[in-house]
Amino acid sequence: MKxxxxxxxxxxxxxxxxxxxxxxxxxxxxxxxxxxxxxxAELVTEMPVVLALALLVxxxxxxxxxxxxxxxxxxxxxxxxxxxxxx
Length: 87
Known about the structure:
The termini are far apart. This protein has a domain at 41-81. The model has no long low-confidence stretch (mean pLDDT 92). The relative contact order is 0.09. With 87 residues, it is mainly alpha-helical. It has three helices and no strands. The protein is 80% helix and 0% strand.
């Protein structure tokens, strides 16, 4: 089995991205608390739901990044194959 290593800048980038997703989820929770006038204790009691939402957003962003990466490489391969062809 091959060992995969992730350089420190990539770890930082992913940590910052997840932190942004967490801030977004907490912001949505604050918005919901203010809008529906519920007790502010829900900021703490709903933390598992907030973490799940942050993880969902992070996963969706990761899927989008992977799809974009794959699409970019498909287009590059398509262009590379067609550049040598005469019309």
